[in-house]
Hints:
five-stranded mixed β-sheet; Maltoporin, Chain A
Amino acid sequence: xxxxxxxxxxxxxxxxxxxxxxxxxxxxxxxxxxxxxxxxxxxxxxxxxxxxxxxxxxxxxxxxxxxxxxxxxxxxxxxxxxxxxxxxxxxxxxxxxxxxxxxxxxxxxxxxxxxxxxxxxxxxxxxxxxxxxxxxxxxxxxxxxxxxxxxxxxxxxxxxxxxxxxxxxxxxxxxxxxxxxxxxxxxxxxxxxxxxxxxxxxxxxxxxxxxxxxxxxxxxxxxxxxxxxxxxxxxxxxxxxxxxxxxxxxxxxxxxxxxxxxxxxxxxxxxxxxxxxxxxxxxxxxxxxxxxxxxxxxxxxxxxxxxxxxxxxxxxxxxxxxxxxxxxxxxxxxxxxxxxxxxxxxxxxxxxxxxxxxxxxxxxxxxxxxxxxxxxxxxxxxxxxxxxxxxxxxxxxxxxxxxxxxxxxxxxxxxxxxxxxxxxxxxxxxxxxxxxxxxxxxxxxxxxxxxxxxxxxxxxxxxxxxxxxxxxxxxxxxxxxxxxxxxxxxxxxxxxxxxxxxxxxxxxxxxxxxxxxxxxxxxxxxxxxxxxxxxxxxxxxxxxxxxxxxxxxxxxxxxxxxxxxxxxxxxxxxxxxxxxxxxxxxxxxxxxxxxxxxxxxxxxxxxxxxxxxxxxxxxxxxxxxxxxxxxxxxxxxxxxxxxxxxxxxxxxxxxxxxxxxxxxxxxxxxxxxxxxxxxxxxxxxxxxxxxxxxxxxxxxxxxxxxxxxxxxxxxxxxxxxxxxxxxxxxxxxxxxxxxxxxxxxxxxxxxxxxxxxxxxxxxxxxxxxxxx
Length: 772
């Protein structure tokens, strides 16, 4: 009855593995059938090593989720994926709602991302000091999502220091038609309704020669926040944080001759949110104190061209792509500006109409080319390899404007005697801007990579890989305005590096269904440069650190990861287990140093070690019952105290900002209702442990009010029926209506201005899906 296609979920390495293997051998007196029965777990094929392989034979800690599995668990975006994958966390990192992604505790809220984000073969992750948040495709008509834990620098480059998340789209078929549709209507406690509608279809246009895959999806998420004017107390809007998303994709595959395929594709996504989802604790959950809406729009387009030719001994693939992204943010910056001038208020005293509006426009343009050579494998292959060359040029830019009346502010600060020019030394730009900034930075990367695998004896394989790159970075920063430098300024900087990232692996395939492995691998991300900090606003903070100005640059950081794992299927393919133990050494960590004046800079904060395990398991008990779950233990701590002029920036023994424990537990029960109709009920529970957001009391980053991040509990329930190609279900998300704090921070300039974000309230609805 059950059709579970996720074959991940593990067990302890060593004695536990041997015990399970013995059980499996006793149960499997005959070879496993080629096609599993309806109550067995289904295998999934992944490309985690840039070749197609059964997940059970890949010597990497991987979680793979296909579209069917994600539909059953109500997965719609990266936040849902993070709740399901051990060792993967997603956290807000600023007041705009930008997020930070971490695998096995390797995360940073500044510099280049520590986790690679791929849409098919294109890396799209961003540098955080410019764009601030990665682009993540929404979950509709995906073939699967793969999460690769541990550094993937050899095959996936500098951005995959802690691991890689890959969103893989369906390949157009040249011989078979298929389609997928999904609609949903949902209601949120205390909020507006949400709904979605999407459809995808594909198949041959000319049988065996030309095929296509097209999809379109629209979702409206109802708001549940109330916006209150802090000056008047009046309610200015209800259900204010709603939004919508549009996704369109088209791919065409052309096979003009045997062994050659040409696949152009285009992926477009447009996401808009009417207002952000942070609330002042003083006002209570889901109440935003702001006189203006603070919307965000985030759209990207990704055209690509993939050309593949299969020779007898190897294949050649060329992937060319261009990723173009545009973000726009608008926010109320009044408290931020006033706080920087020492005014602890949400409005300018004596002038309740004073308002400072921040406007951000951010853009990202990535050109990528990879030419890959992959050997042809067969069951008796003793030597296999994959290698190629990679080129990438990334440009990211940010335009920042603050719109306000600095004459009024200058008049207040001077006691009624000065305007902006007299008090700050510069008039407002164009009469409306107190600050403007144009920041542009570029990264270039040219690399050669390869990985070879040799079969030492039957079942035992050793592999070694190496990536050598030439990376470059430069930036230019142009600032102006009375709140900024007081005069037009231009700063720039650059650096070049030659990173080398090796990888070594030993794997033993005990049986066709069970294996053990060990891996040592290096991960890396390049350094960068800091935006100048105006001493006029931050002199006190800088003096507290014993410096007169922040460092103008910071160095690269890197990890060495050591992992031992085991995975397999047992008991006639009714039990699947995947587990690993890891130890990661992280050196010269790039971390943000926040200043109370509202600015900050990046520095290399010593060393850390992340150690732990992850385990995933699925058990088809029989009679329609499937139990599954996972757990991740990540103990990530600084191993060296870093001092700067006597100030402790990082303290040995302090934990990195990541939960020590994450876990999920799922139960699904399938039951026949009548001929050709099966019913099911599914319950999912997700847990993330408590952790510390800042350093301990002795460190410069210590903030007692926000340091403690509580544990979270999230429960979903889904009841449905499947008849033929139709799957109709009712669901409840956040069944316990949890309101646990997910991110807490001080609003600049407000002593008691603590802000929080939390889960969307309890949401109930109906989903209908059609697939053929």
